[in-house]
């Protein structure tokens, strides 16, 4: 009689183990689904943040180039009236005009939807050109979702340049 009792006890343990496994089945799938969603969120976020940063860097490059061009925009009236000092004499009007002219012929940087000269652009101290740009950046992964929600990513950059006058030896 000990033989059948052993078998039935072993069978009961086996059946209990099978029931426990069935009760836990599918829980790993939920964990895997959560991990995949988290990984996708990190990938999408990383791609969009990188795209926004690259667009900002390209915008800084454009602002630097516009400021360098505007630093040569001599304000002739002030130069004739006051003379030259150690740098090209600038006015806010000449800086704005030169920056606008430069940006009008330059193509928009990649990843930038719209851009323009912002308040704050002008001459600082009469010899330093300050160019401030505002832009709207396109995000490759979530840009459509943000547009549907009426949101946009705005970038604001500032660049300064000065054109010193060197004495002729």
TrEMBL record:
Pfam family, one: Tad
Domain Putative Flp pilus-assembly TadG-like N-terminal: 26-73
Superkingdom field: Bacteria
UniProt KW keywords: Membrane, Transmembrane, Transmembrane helix
Chain segments annotated as transmembrane: 28-47
Name listed for the protein in its UniProt record: Putative Flp pilus-assembly TadG-like N-terminal domain-containing protein
